[in-house]
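Q: Hi! Curious about what Glycoside hydrolase 2 (Mannanase, beta-galactosidase) looks like structurally. Here's the sequence.
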Amino acid sequence: MEKQVNKPFKASTAGPKGERKAARDARKNNPNAVGNSKERPVSNPTNNPKAFIWNSRQKMMRRMHRTAEMQERSVHVPMVDRTPQVAPPFVVAVVGPPKSGKTTLIKSLVKKYTKHKLAEVKGPITVVSGRKSRLTLIECPNDLNSMIDVGKVADLVLLTVDASFGFEMETFEFLNILQTHGFPRVMGVLTHLDKFRKLKRLRKTKKILKQRFWTEIYQGAKLFYLSGVIGGRYPVREIANLCRFISIMKFRPLAWRNQHPYLLADRMEDLTDPNLIQADPKVDRTVTLYGYLRGTNLQPNTRVHIPGAGDYTVETVAMLNDPCPLPDKVRKSLSGKQKLIYAPMSDVGGVMYDKDAVYINVPGSFTRNGIVPDRRPGQDSDASEAEENGGEVSGSEHDGSGSSSDDDDDEDRRGKTPAGREEEFLPSSDRYNQVQDIGRGGIGEKMVIDLQDASATFADQMQDASIQIFSHSAPLKSQVAGDDESDYTDDGEGGSDDEQGFDDSDDDNDDNDDEAAEGDDDGVATGRRSRRARRRFEAEAEPADGSESQEELAFADTDEELESSGAEDDDAYTDGAARWKAGLVDRAAESFKLINRRINLMDLVYRPELVADRFPKGYGSSSEASSESDGVEGSDGSDDELLKPKYDTTALHSALSVVDTCKASIKAERLAVWDDEAALESLRHRFITAPVDTGETEEVDNAEAGSDAESELMGDFEDLEAPNGADSRLDDNESNDDGDDSVDGDETVVDGSDSDAEPKPTPVDEDLDDVKAREALARRKAELTSKFELEVEGIYESDDEAGGPGRGRLGLYDRVKSDMAKQRLRNEAEFAEDSAELRAMVEGYRAGTYVRVLLHRVPCEFVKHFNPKFPVVVGGLLPSESNFGLIRVRIKRHRWHRRILKNNDPLIFSLGWRRFQSLPLFSIDDGARNRMLKYTPQHMHCLATFYGPLTTPGTGFCCVESVGRDSRYSPEFRITATGTVLDLDQSTYVVKKLKLTGVPEKIDRNTAVVRGMFHSALEVAKFTGAKLRTVSGVRGHIRKHLTKPEGHFRAVFEDRIRKSDIVFLRAWHRVEPKRYYNPVTSLLLAGKKADWQGMRLVRDVRRERGIPVPSQADSEYRAITRTHQPAVPLKVPKAVVDNLPFDMRPKLTHREAAKSAKRNKDGSGHSASSVAAEARTTTATRAVFHEPEGQRNAVQLERVRIVHDGTIEKRAKRRAEQAELRHAKRQKEEAVSQAIAKRRMKEFIKVNDIQQRKRVARSGQGSK
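A: Let's find out. The predicted structure is below.
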C-alpha cells in the first residue's frame, strides 16, 4: 500500500511578507552589511503616517467628536472595588416559568462541573467551576416573593424559556423586577427545541424570540439553544458551551450590594432547647444560618433583615472553614478531588460538623451491604433493625454514669431533616468543620457501619466496661459508680450540670479539631473528641500539634477477663499512686509563679499557635506507655474499636495534672526577661500615651522592637505610631540589595528552652540591627509604592504621551478612580499583618468568608414551615435603615398594568431588602405646593409619600398589588408601578383642593350677603379676606361675618351679581399620609408561600361581600334644565346720547318724539335707551325713496336679473328633455335584453327536457 503524499508547504517569496523574510535572512547571514547597524532603518514610504491624515478639517472634527462621545458613553460611575482576595462564589440563578427546564439545567451544570448526579435540587448548590472561580447555583421557584429575592442577590441569571410556547408573563415580570434592583447579567436559554418538527419553523421561532429578547435586554444579548434532553440531561456539548460563556462572564458591582453585607443561606439549623419546645410549641426559636458572606463587611450585633421573616439582631457571627474551597495549587485543569460540590439542602455530603451538633446525612436506601461486601457474622438484630430503618442513627455520646438519662438525651437530641429522615445530634466543638464526603465510602457511612457492627448497645457496653481515669491509675468498674449513678439519674439538676460540663469540654477542644481536620488532605473528618468517650474510625489522620487528648478507655469484653484483670489493676493503681506524687513540690512552685503572671488574653484566644509551644515537652507525642496500651488494645480484636482513643495524651496529663488546663502553660523562665525595667521601658513606645522621644531612647526602642521575644509576646500587632516605624516582623528570607543575610539573622531569640546561656546583643549589634530595620522598612515602602503605581498604571499620563502640555492632567473620573485605588492600598497595608480574627473584630467579617450567623427570637413558623426550595437571604442593614419615617418617591404606573392606581390603596413595595405593604399618597409638584392626586396620571411620573423604613435616596423599587396570582387577575401583569426614592423626612406637606360653595341671599349693588358656605362665625373669621369667585367669573372676597344668622357673611364683588349665581371659595387642605407598615412574612406560611394576604383593596372586599358602591344623592348626575332668559335691551344714558354726533343719534319721528316726551313727562315712560332702540326699529321698517340715478341703477339691475333667470330656466328645461330621452332609450334596451333572455330560457328548457327524456328511456331499458 502506497503512503499518502501530502502537499508540501511552500513559503511565500513575494509580497510584503516575503520581502520582510528576505531582509531578515540577509541581516542574519551578514550582520556587518549596510543597514544592519543599531540605527533605526528607514521606514517604507508607503507607511508614511502623514500621507493618511484627514483631508478636511470638518471630517477630522466629526471623527474626534465621535471618538470622545464613544469614550464618554463607556464611562460608568466609579465604584469602590470591594472584591476580596478569595471572592465568594458567584450566584447563578436559574429563573423561568414552570416546566421550562430549570431543574434539568442545574443537574446538567452540576454534572459538567463535578461529575456528580443530583437526585433532587433543593437550596443553593456551590460547585468549583475553575481554578479561581466558584458558582452557587440556585433554582428560583415560580413565586413572586422568590423572584424578588433572587433578583436582589443574583450575579448571573439564566432565563429559561420554553421555545415551543414562547415568552410567558413570569419572564417579563422578572425582567422588570431586575430593572429596579440593579439588573445583573442575564443570559437566555431556549429549551424544548426538540418539539419542532419542521426546520423552517424552528429557525423562524428562534429569530422571533431572539429579537424579542434583545428588545427587553439589549442588542446582542446572549441566547443559548438547548436542543433536547438525553438521559435526563441536556447534551454535553451544549452545556460545555454554556459553561464556557459563564466562565468568561465579568460582573460589575451593583450599588446596593456594594453598600450592604448579605448572605444567601445554604443551611439552617434550629438550636432551641427541646424542653422549651415541649413546654410551648410556639416559643420563639434560636436559629443559625450558614452561607458565604457577600457585599461589605458584616459587623457583630448588626441589624439584619430576612425577606419574608422580618428584622433581627445578629447575636454572634462565627467564621467557619470553607466547605467548598478553591484548589490550593494552580494547575492546568482540576482533578477529581478538586471538583467539589457543597449542597447541604440537597442531601449531598457526608458529615457536617458544627458547634452544636454533628449531622450525618445518610441516603434513604443505605445499608451496610451496599458498601461492605461481606456481612460480619457478629452483627446482631439491633444493627439489622438500623439497616431496615434506612440507616437511622440513634444514641449519643455520654459517660458511664447511667443509661436512662442518656436515653432521654437521645430522644431530645434527635431531629427530623427536611426530607423526613432522622439524624443524630452529637455535641461537638465550637469551631465548625465541614467535611465533604467523597464517593460511597464516606466518613458518615463509616460511622454508621461502626455503629452497626457493635456487638451490644452503648448502655450495655458501659455497664460491663471499666474506665481508667489516669494513665497511671487503676481502672474503675461501672458497678463501683452505681451508687453515684442513681443520684445523677434521679436528680434533674444533675443532668443539666452534666450537659454543661460536656459543653465546657467541647469548648476546650475547639481549635484543635480544626487543626486536625486541616491536616487531612482528602478532607475526611478525623472524628470528634469529648471528655468522656472517643470514637475511632477506620481512616485515621495524623494528630496536629497542640491538640488536646482524652483519657484512655479500657473495656473488658467478658466477665472472666474482667475478673482476671483485677490483680493487674490493683498493681497499676499502686504504681500510679506513687507516680503522680513525684515532682509535686516543683510543679506547685511553678504554678505559684504562673498565678502572679498576667495572661495575654489576645494570644490565648486568637493566637493558639503561640501558646502551643509553651506546653511541656512530650505534648502530643507518643510515649512508651501509650504504645504499650495501644498494643494491648489492638490485640484484643474486639468490636469496640469505636471507643478506642486516637491520640496519646499521657505526657500532657502527667505534666498538667496539677495546673488548670484551661489556662496557658507558660514557663517562668520565658517571663523572667520582663523583670528588667529596661525591657519594660522598651514597650512604652507601643502605647499611644507614650511621649515621642528622640536620640538614644529612640534607638533603644527600635533595637528592642526587633527582638523575637517582644514580637512573640505582642502578637501580630504593628506599631504604626512609632517614631521610626521599624517593623519587627520581617520575613526570614528577606535580604538586602547587596545579598546580605536577613535582618533577623543576628537577633537574639528568647525561647522556652532549658539553656540559660544565651548571648545578649551588644550596643554595636543593636545599632546594626536598627540600621538594617530602617533599610528593610524603606524597601517595603518602596515596594508598596511601586505596586500602587503598577496598579493604577494608565491613569496618569505625562505631557509628552498625552500630546502636549495640559493633556496629561487627570479628569474627575480618573481622579476619583485613583483616590479609590490609593485608599484600597492603604487599607490593605494597614491590615496586612493582622490575623483574620483580629480583622474581624476591627473591620468586621469580610466578603468571601463562610460564616455562621446566630439569631434569637425567630418565630416558630420559620422553622416549622421551612422549605429549602425557597431562598433565604440575610441582608445587612445600615444604622439609618432600622428607623421608620415618611419616604417621598417618584413613581410611575407600569405601562403594562391595565388599571390606574388609586390614592391610599394598599401596595406591596419591594424596597431594599424588604418587602412590605403600605398606603401611598399620590401628589404632583404644583409650583409652591404638592397637590394631592386621586389617581396616578397617564404616561407620566408623579410623587408618592408613604410610611416605611428609611432607605438611601436613589434606591429603586417596584410595587405589586398581590404577591399571588389570583384567579380573577391571572392573565394580568402584576408589576403595578416602579420608581426611585427621592427624599426622607418625618413630616410632609401635601395639600388637596377644598371648594366651598354658597348662594347669595341679599344683593345690594356690589355687596351681597352669602349663606350656606360656613356653619359658624368662627369659620368665617378664619377665612376673612379669602378670595371668592362666581360661576359667571365675577371675583370678590369675604369682608365680615354677620351675627345672625349663624354662618352668613358679607362679601364684596367687582360687579353686581345675580341671585342665580353660585359663589365658590377655593382653598387648600393639608393631608397627612397614613402610617401603615405591614411586612410580607411569606416564609412563615405553610404550603404555598404566595398565599400571603395583607390589607385588601376596597373593591375586593366589596366584590367578596356583595356590597354595592355607596353613592350620595348630591354626587349623582342629573339632567340640567336651563331656562331661557330674554335679552335685556341695552340702556344708553341720555347724557351719552346727547353727546353723540348727529349722524349717530337715533332719528325720531314727530309722533314718536311726542309719545316719548309725554312718557317722560308722566314719569312712567321708558328711559332714553329704550327710546333709542325703538327709533332704530322704526328706521329699519321705513320706506326708502331713491334719487333719479339710483332709480336708473335699480332698473338696470332688475333687467340683468330677469335675463339671468331666463337663462337658468332654459338650462333646466334642456336638462329635463335630455333626461327623458335617456330614460326612453334605457327602457328600450331593457325590453330587448328581456326578450333575448326569455328566448334563451325557452331554448334551455326545451333542450333540458329532451335530455331528461333520453335519460329516463335509457334507465328503463337498463332495468329490463
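A: A fun detail: The longest helix spans residues 1188-1263.
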